[in-house]
Design goal:
Shape of chain B: globular
Oligomer: heterodimer
Number of strands of chain A: 3
Order of helices and strands of chain B: HEEHHHHHHHHH
Distance between the termini of chain B: 49 Å
Largest sheet of chain B: 2 strands, antiparallel
Order of helices and strands of chain A: HHHEHHHEE
Strand order of the largest sheet of chain A: 2-3
Distance between the termini of chain A: 140 Å
Helix content of chain A: 55-70%
Number of helices of chain A: 6
Helix content of chain B: 55-70%
Largest interface: A-B, 42 and 64 residues
Largest sheet of chain A: 2 strands, antiparallel
Strand content of chain B: 5-15%
Strand order of the largest sheet of chain B: 1-2
Radius of gyration of chain A: 54 Å
Radius of gyration of chain B: 19 Å
Chain lengths: ~180, ~240
């Protein structure tokens, strides 16, 4: 048995009746038929919503450009996309040319063998020279002038490092 | 989209052994008339277009392009983006039309493509904005763009006021409420169609619609505006 509605429909019922009439409870439907106040409220809401939609549609802009299908060609005449954009085509051409060049001459981007070997030899030579200079320095770390002084004291045969000689004096020890 | 950008204005798609080129008509004089035909007429056109009838698809485009543009424009607020998206939508529709099983469902199917394309557009825009490379083509709001018929000063004032109310209202809507409300009352789709487009159950659509209508009903300023303006009684509107 359908329930009775006392008083008027509430807001929820009014909105539900606007959303979906078919899904309404039979009591609500019957009340809407009988109650002019509720029916008026429902219709007012429906009208406002209809006006809203209509106003939106009427004041909507229209596009400046309309799409349309232009032409139809058989598949044999389909042009690849690179022919449409020259820059894209040129880029693709460059890539293709580089690839072909690499394919035909794999050593194109490699350094030549002879040149590389020569460089290695020169490097080795420089290394050897450098090592020999280091060895010389290890043997005679002092400059020539100081080496001569050291030789002189060695001839004297004295081990006393604290002794010094006057320049030009002969066997005159300064203490 | 990259390929589309490379190809510029002209966009090409191959379907089987036939190439179709889609181009724009810029001539205002040759602007096609649009309007939604009856269901039988649409079904016949869809059936013909599915078999590769190009003229049938062009007729379908004429029928739906204005409302598809409107749908996209209300969601992007940019005429240029809307035009680009509209092109994408119709090309996608043409491409995938043979996959549509029921020709009676062409309209919700087309709307679904449109809604998905708009979502992709916003997703891409967000992604680009995240990296700071978003191309801003916003034309602010519909009030800045001339409608079909250039209105007089009073009409322009009324229109500006209307869109100002709409902006206020849409701020209160959740994204789904906005979508459902717009599809129901601006695009005039029924609950079943909206559910199909948004891939939601009808009860979920009803719930979102209920909340949206409640917010609409609470907006007294918009209600007053609609009550007053509609009958051309702009002067009688409450201040």
């Amino acid at each position: 048995m359908a329930k009775q509605i006392t008083g008027h429909l509430n807001e929820e019922q009014i909105i539900e009746s606007v959303i979906d009439k078919s899904g309404l409870d039979s009591a609500v439907r019957r009340h809407l038929l009988e109650c002019s106040a509720c029916r008026a409220e429902k219709e007012a809401l429906e009208n406002r919503l209809t006006r809203f939609g209509q106003f939106s549609r009427e004041h909507a802009p229209s596009p400046r450009r309309w799409p349309r299908l232009l032409e139809r060609r058989p598949a044999s005449t389909i042009r690849p996309s690179w022919r449409i954009r020259p820059s894209f085509g040129m880029g693709m051409g460059l890539v293709l040319a580089s690839f072909l060049a690499l394919l035909l001459n794999p050593h194109l981007f490699k350094p030549k063998k002879d040149v590389a070997l020569e460089k290695v030899y020169q490097e080795m030579l420089r290394d050897e020279q450098f090592m020999s200079e280091i060895e010389k320095l290890e043997e005679n770390p002092l400059p020539r002038f100081y080496v001569d002084i050291t030789d002189f004291s060695d001839q004297d045969g004295s081990d006393d490092l604290h002794e010094s000689r006057s320049p030009g004096g002969q066997d005159e020890i300064i203490t | 989209m990259i390929i589309d950008a490379l190809l510029g204005e002209r966009i090409q798609y191959t379907t089987g052994c036939v190439l179709f080129v889609m181009d724009y008509s810029e001539d205002a004089e040759t602007k096609p008339q649009s309007g939604v035909g009856n269901a039988n007429q649409v079904s016949v056109l869809v059936d013909r277009a599915r078999t590769g009838d190009r003229s049938a698809f062009e007729e379908l485009m004429l029928l739906y392009q204005a409302e598809i543009f409107r749908l996209v424009f209300f969601r992007t607020r940019s005429r240029m983006d809307s035009e680009d998206l509209m092109q994408d939508i119709f090309l996608a529709a043409f491409r995938y039309l043979p996959q549509l099983k029921d020709s009676d469902r062409f309209r919700p199917w087309l709307y679904r493509i449109a809604v998905n394309r708009v979502r992709d557009f916003h997703r891409k825009k967000k992604f680009l904005a995240f990296f700071g490379i978003s191309e801003e083509r916003d034309e602010s709001d519909p009030t800045d763009v001339a409608p079909h018929n250039d209105p007089g000063a009073l009409d322009k004032v009324i229109r500006d006021e209307f869109w100002s109310h709409v902006r206020q209202l849409s701020k209160r809507f959740s994204p789904m409420e906005k979508e459902v409300f717009s599809l129901r009352f601006v695009d005039n789709l029924n609950l079943r169609e909206i559910a199909q487009i948004l891939k939601k159950s009808e009860s979920a659509v009803k719930t979102h619609l209920y909340r949206a209508i409640k917010k609409f009903k609470e907006d007294a300023a918009l209600s007053d505006f609609l009550e007053g303006e509609w009958h051309g009684k702009a002067d009688n509107r409450p201040s």
